[in-house]
Amino acid sequence: MTGAAKTRRLPKCKAEEAENAWQLRLYVAGQTPKSLTAFANLKRICEEHLEGRYRIEVIDLMVNPQLAKGDQILALPTLVRRLPDPVRKIIGDLSNTDRVLVGLDIKPLA
Amino acid sequence: MAQHTVGLKAPVKSLGKCPTGIKGLDEVTGGGLPQGRPTLVCGGTGCGKTLLAMEFLVRGALEFGEPGVFMSFEEKSEELAQNFASLGFDLDDLEVRNKLAIDYVHLERSEIEESGEYDLEGLFIRLGYAIDSIGAKRVALDTIEVLFSGFSNEIVLRAELRRLFRFLKEKGVTAVVTGEQGERTLTRFGLEEYVADCVIFLNHQVVDQVATRRLRIVKYRGSAHGTNEYPFMIDDQGFSVLPISSIGLDHAASTERVSTGIPRLDTMLGGQGYFRGSSVLVSGTAGVGKSSMAAHFVDAACRRGERCLYFAFEESRNQIIRNMRSIGIDLEQWVDRGVLEFRNSRPTLYGLEMHLVTMHKAVEVFQPAIVVVDPISNLVASASDLEVKSMLSRLIDYLKMKGITAFCTDLTAVGGSLERTDVGISSLMDTWLLLQVIEGSGERNRGLYVLKSRGMAHSNQVREYRLSDEGAQILDVYVGSGGVLTGAGRINQEARERLEVLERGQEMERKQRDMERKKAVIEAQIAALRIGFEAEKDDLERAIAREKLHQEVLAEETWTMARSRSSDQPPAAAKNRARSGKAGGR
After folding, report:
1. Which of A29, B181, B204, B350 is deepest in the core (most CB within 10 A)?
2. Would you state the pLDDT for residue B513?
3. What are B357-400's pLDDT values in tens digits?
């Protein structure tokens, strides 16, 4: 399944490029249950649908509050799709996988 | 010390107030917004919510040394900076100096997908970070309701809002939260249920095509506040509220008098003119010389070196100066010297409240001793009677409180009662002069009455008021069987009186002469009588003498006869008989 997705979406890209193809940023505020759930859900979805082509960056706003302004973060947790364009945002603990896929514009393979 | 406090209540720490620095608002709220608590400012579109919030921050930063955070949900920082530059607020400079932090929150529903549970911790972190970075004491959130359109989960949102206001209180910042007016509620999403301490409602009403902004303190926990709707204005200096009804009736009453500029009018008003700080109303129909009277007053005041502010609602500055020159008053020199200032505007330019707010501001800035409103009746055109009365009384009270002499002219409608003023403001006035047109002998002349003048003996007589090259003159009128005579009639009467005086004088002279003549005649008669008498007296004396002689002769004869007859009758008896015989003969 994943292999098919890989070939269809990025037929000739190198592993390096593939890794950068999906840049995801997860904004959280400390190690709250919601943050942990969100991270776990994200990891799972990425593994399922974007294996090897994604990079997740977790930003703890408790540590770097100044970063909230740049991505217009209000709700937490927020997942920001930096790449590919355009920037998209998903808020919540990502427990609804379908909505995450829609939000990230990943077409689930039949 | 302890003894002194016995029986007294322990001092209660009252609610701290955070001054806004906005003209009038601090007076209405009794010192400012509740310190360390959020205040809700709500109202319709374009009513000035953002401006109020921003001015609160800017004035706080500039005047009270309290940095502020402006969290904007609607306008970008650049847009805000541009918008407020027109009010003279340099937001960029304030940001550079760490006096102000603007955080633009962009929220676009279509860009956000919701999946699972979330909270608004990010907003808190951003706000907290902004507050901490500049040590802010004031926060403005404009308009937080945008959140409701940005997130679908209203339950979470409401819980988070409640948390937000708690957060702001914990931070100890004084916050202004703006909200859009709802259909039946103060705000569209019921923000008032979270912000319970102070709610300010802004209103922008259009009545008869004239827009008026009003402000009302809906609630203010733990503090007394003005409850009325206060007009406010937004101009190039920002927001200003007119705290009209905070003025009581306790102004000082001056006993100083100011000349009216017309000597005989001074005489009519107890010899010295108006009281300083009183209000004077001159009413009359069109063209009776109300403005000229105002010009005289202004001219006299400027001559004394007092500052005058002239609100003209009918004529332009230059027109007034030109027209007054025709009666020999040069107002331009006072304008040039800066003691006289004209404020000309069309009455319909804005609502009555706005006019009054503008007037307040102008008075505050110029600090005049005399204010002329010419004419006050034109203001009435832009509002209802009820409003007019209350607003004008506020204006007059305000001027009285400041010890400013108010001189208002009032145009009475032709056909109406002259003693009626449209707005019933006459009762507010201390001195009321009526200029009336007196028609007769094919002329219109002007009559001047002092209808009332509180606190001074004043003339009860009508006078003719005449405008000439040398200014206004007050002349006596003639009251006769044909009524009051003015103008040509008066001149006629004057001539007639002169003639009468002449005639009377001549008559008297004639009588005098008659008397002299009569006296002479009588004296002549007396002399003639006396002469006649003298003549008669002579005759009589002569007759008496003759008779005497005759008798003596007779007695002599008798005695001689008796002697010759040798009578024994004594001659004395014979003499007596002869005397009585003479008496009997007469």
Report:
1. A29
2. 95
3. 788 888 888 999 999 988 887 776 656 667 777 777 778 888 88
d(CA B307, CA B522): 78
Q: Are B175 and B141 in contact (CB under 8 A)?
A: yes
Contact between chains at A90 and B123 (C-beta distance less than 8 A):
no
Q: Give all domains of chain A, ordered by start, each with its CATH number.
A: 18-104 (3.40.30.10)
More confident residue, B585 or B525: B525
Spatial contact of B146 and B107, defined as CB atoms under 8 Å apart: yes
Taking an 8 Å cut-off on Cβ atoms, the answer to whether B119 and A78 are in contact is no
**A74 Cβ under 8 Å from any chain B Cβ:** yes
Q: From the candidates A24, A36, A90, A91, which should be mutated to test the interface with B, based on the most B CB atoms within 10 A?
A: A91
pLDDT at B5 over 50: no
Q: Which chain B residue is nearest to residue A42, measuring alpha carbons?
A: B115
In whole angstroms, what is the distance from residue B439 CA to residue B485 CA?
9
CATH class of B257-485: alpha beta
Closest residue, chain A, to B144 (C-alpha):
A74
CB contact under 8 A, A75 and B106: no
Q: Do A73 and B122 touch (CB under 8 A)?
A: yes
The minimal CB distance from B114 to the residues A34, A65, A92 is found for A92
Residue B572 has pLDDT above 80, yes or no: no
Q: Which two tokens mark B423?
A: 């707005």
Q: Where are the domains of chain B?
A: 14-246, 257-485, 491-582
Chain B residue nearest residue A69, CA to CA = B126
Which residues of chain A does B151 touch, with a Cβ-Cβ cutoff of 8 Å?
A: 75, 91
Per the listing, tokens 């005058």 go with B308
Q: Could you tell me if A38 and B99 are in contact, meaning their C-beta atoms sit under 8 angstroms apart?
A: no
The confidence band for B225, taking pLDDT boundaries of 50, 70 and 90, is confident
Continuous segment of H or E residues that includes residue B275: strand B274-275
B69: chain A residues, CB-CB within 8 Å: none
CA distances (Å), origin B52, targets A109, B43, B155, B202 = 54, 11, 30, 10
B247-276 confidence digits (pLDDT tens): 556 667 788 888 888 888 888 888 888 888
Would you call A72 an interface residue with chain B, using a CB distance cutoff of 8 Å? yes
At a CB cut-off of 8 Å and minimum separation 6, what does B351 contact?
Answer: B207, B210, B211, B212, B231, B382, B383
Superfamily of domain B14-246: P-loop containing nucleotide triphosphate hydrolases (3.40.50.300)
Residue contact A76–B119, C-beta within 8 A:
yes
pTM given for the model: 0.67
